Structure formats: C-alpha cells, structure tokens
C-alpha cells in the first residue's frame, strides 16, 4: 500500500517507535503513580520523560504544564469547555476542523457564548481580521496552525500578539503543524497548544497533548483517581494531575516519546521540506492536467505536507479514492475532512476534495505512481 494519508494519522511509524512500544509493553506496563514498586515507577518515569521532552522541544514554562489526552479533539475540548463562561465571545475561523467548530457551535447554540467565524482567503487568515473581530467580551481565540484540508500555515505569532494585547486567551490547534513547523512557546504568545501524538510526532493512536500556559486557568475535566493524592475530596489542583483523572495511556506515551526523539533527530524543517517537495511534483502535474485544480493557494514556504485536489467534472473524490485504493493500492482521503465550513468557502461542499498527505517515508516513486494513477483514471473517464 502507498500510504498518502498521514494527515489523518501517520503510517508507518519510525522503527524506534515500534521498538519502544514493544519494550515498554513487555517490561514496564504498570499503573504510573499508583504504587511505589519498581514497575510503577518506571511507568511514571516515561510520563515524566515525555513531559520533559515536550517542554524542551516547544520551550514551555515547565514539564508539568503538559497534559496527556486521548487525541487532539480531547485536548481542544478540555481547553474550550474548561475556559469559556456564559456571556463570553469567542473567535474562530472557517479553516477549523470539527474538533474546534463543533464544541464552539454547540456552546453558541446553547446560548452560552457568542461566536465570530473569520473567513479565510485562499486558505490563509489575515491577523487584522481577528483584531477587527475582538470585542471587550472576547475571552478565547481558537485557530488552527495549519489547515487540515489545505495544508496552509497560519500566522500564529501575529495573531497571538493581537490576542495577548486584547487580554484574551489564544488556543492553537497544532494537529497538522506539530513535528514539521517550529513552535516556540517562549516567543509566541500561545495560552493553549493542542495536538495529537499520532500524526507527525509518530506516537500511536490514542495519544494527544494539551499545553496549558500560565495565563490559562481551565476547570477540571475528568475528575477521578490521580494516584498521588487520594485525600482531597475534589480533584487535586496540582498540574498535570488536575486535568488527568484516571489511568493514563502510558504505553501510548512510551511510543510518543520515541516519536518525539525521532523528530528532534530528523529536524522538523527537513521533514516538512521533504513532504512539500513531493507535493510540488503533484502541483506541477495539476498545472498540466485537464480538469484538475489545487484547492487554496500554493505557497510552499507556508505549507505543510497536505494538499487537496479539486477533481474533474464527472468524477467524485469518493470514487477516485476508492479506485485508488482497490486498483492501485494507494490510500488517500476524500470528502470534507471534518472541515465543512472551509469546503463551503472553497465551493467544494458537499462532495469535498481528494487530499493527499505524504510522510517522511514517502518516496519520489510513490508520488510517480500516484500521478500515473490519476492520469490513467482521468484518461479512462474524461
Ligand atoms: C486540524 C486538526 N485538528 C484536530 C484534529 C483532530 O485530531 P484527533 O483525531 O487526534 O482528535 C485533526 C485531525 O485530523 C486535525 O487535522
């Protein structure tokens, strides 16, 4: 299978991730923090090492501000629902994944918040549009760093500065940028950073992360056992346990830690360039291919490794994806990619687009096979 669906979840993982998972599962998979024995301590140490690795990689305030979650959706829900109060105003954009759009729309429908959805242009947001939308009631601005449908990278430093000036909180969804774009929490005013462990950090599914900056004071989320302090009647207020009730996915975090180390060794910018170079070949092909179009603007310096193709009349992205799968052994993702507002803006709603997302192990030959397959399918149908 030629796997071009890394924006959904990465495959394959680096060898070191499989090895870490196997070794941890066989030697140390005890309940972290719950008991004082050696295996429990080894298990706790993996969580600790991963929080330190994250804090160092992103230059956060301290390791205990990194919360392990189920996935990016979980991290975003903790930040959004733990922050807003009745009467608050929230700003978001039409680029967002449903994991931001749905919780915010639900809060808006319930009458809890008022919501402004900023329009993108060619896949990019103008920070000035956010400045204009801010009101005295704006409590939270929730924006994606890289749009999952288009791969376009947003100016989060400029947006963050505007949000900070307004004394609101800035939530960045880094699902598509983490591991390939630099994110420096020392210099970029971000209050919450949410991302999955299972995409370009190469952890297994079931891993996600939320960074809670010092200005953010979320409410407790999943209240329950934390192991360390059983006396208090309510959730102990000490981070990270305040937001981490229940046995954590320590096996997943062991894999994630190996993934983070692999990314650090391979350099995020080098990884991004490899993926964008591969996409450039598809962009060049689209320019010569009848009926095909790139969705959004193509600016390779402000792009991660996801690209959406608008398919020719007479084909649907769903049909194409299934032909690619069954006849060519190529995995891509068709449809709306959980981002209906963006597809409405692009005029590709409800059929959507055909998204390809190479990864670090995708080769030039894989892309040649993909291009040849699209050429062959187009020739047969058009
Ligand atoms: C931009 C963006 N945000 C959030 C998510 C949700 O991630 P998860 O599936 O880990 O909850 C995704 C997943 O594709 C995404 O692309």
Looking at this protein, list some descriptive labels.
2 domains; 382 residues; Aspartate Aminotransferase, domain 1; Aspartate Aminotransferase, domain 2; alpha/beta; binds pyridoxal-5'-phosphate; 7-stranded mixed beta sheet
Summarize this, please?
By secondary structure, the chain is α/β, with parallel strands linked by helices. It folds into two domains: 15-266, Aspartate Aminotransferase, domain 2, CATH 3.40.640; 267-381, Aspartate Aminotransferase, domain 1 (Alpha-Beta Complex).
Q: Mind explaining what this structure looks like?
A:
The chain is an alpha/beta fold and 382 residues long. The chain folds into 2 domains: 252 residues, Type I PLP-dependent aspartate aminotransferase-like (Major domain) (Aspartate Aminotransferase, domain 2, 3-Layer(aba) Sandwich), CATH 3.40.640.10; 115 residues, Alpha-Beta Complex (Aspartate Aminotransferase, domain 1). Helix content is 39%, strand content 14%. The chain has 11 helices and 13 strands. Strands 2-8-7-6-5-3-4 form a 7-stranded mixed beta sheet, with helices on both faces. It is globular and about 70 Å long. 49% of the residues are buried. Bound molecules: pyridoxal-5'-phosphate. The site of pyridoxal-5'-phosphate has 13 residues, from helix 3. Pyridoxal-5'-phosphate binds next to helix 3.
């Amino acid at each position: 299978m030629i796997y071009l669906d890394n924006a959904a979840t990465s495959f394959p993982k680096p060898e070191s991730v499989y090895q870490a998972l196997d070794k941890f599962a066989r030697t140390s998979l005890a309940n972290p923090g719950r008991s004082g024995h050696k295996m429990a301590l080894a298990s706790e140490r993996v969580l600790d090492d991963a929080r330190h690795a994250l804090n160092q990689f992103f230059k956060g305030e301290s390791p205990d501000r990194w919360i392990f979650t189920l996935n990016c959706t979980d991290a975003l829900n903790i930040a959004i629902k733990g922050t807003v109060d009745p009467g608050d105003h929230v700003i978001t954009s039409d680029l967002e994944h449903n994991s931001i759009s749905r919780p915010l729309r639900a809060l808006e429908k319930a009458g809890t918040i008022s919501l402004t959805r900023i329009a993108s242009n060619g896949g990019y947001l103008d920070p000035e549009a956010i400045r204009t939308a801010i009101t005295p009631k704006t409590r939270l601005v929730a924006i994606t760093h890289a749009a999952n449908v288009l791969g376009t990278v947003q100016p989060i430093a400029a947006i963050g500065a505007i949000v900070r000036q307004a004394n609101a909180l800035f939530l960045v969804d880094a699902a598509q940028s983490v591991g390939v774009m630099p994110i420096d929490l020392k210099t970029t005013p971000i209050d919450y950073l949410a991302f999955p462990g299972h995409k370009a950090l190469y952890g297994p599914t079931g891993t996600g992360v939320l960074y809670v900056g010092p200005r953010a004071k979320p409410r407790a989320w999943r209240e329950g056992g934390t192991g360390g302090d059983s006396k208090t009647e309510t959730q102990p207020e000490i981070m990270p346990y305040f937001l981490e009730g229940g046995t954590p996915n320590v096996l997943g975090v062991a894999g994630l830690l190996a993934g983070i180390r692999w990314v650090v060794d391979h350099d995020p910018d080098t990884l991004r360039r490899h993926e964008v170079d591969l996409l450039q070949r598809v962009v060049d092909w689209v320019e010569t291919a009848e009926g095909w179009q790139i969705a959004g603007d193509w600016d390779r310096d402000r792009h991660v490794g996801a690209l959406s193709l608008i398919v020719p009349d007479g084909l649907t992205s769903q049909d194409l994806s299934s032909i690619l799968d069954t006849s060519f052994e190529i995995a891509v993702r068709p449809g709306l990619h959980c981002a209906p507002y963006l597809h409405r803006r692009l005029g590709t709603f409800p059929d959507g687009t055909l998204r390809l997302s190479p990864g670090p192990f995708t080769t030039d030959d894989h892309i040649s096979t993909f291009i040849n397959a699209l050429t062959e399918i187009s020739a047969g149908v058009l």
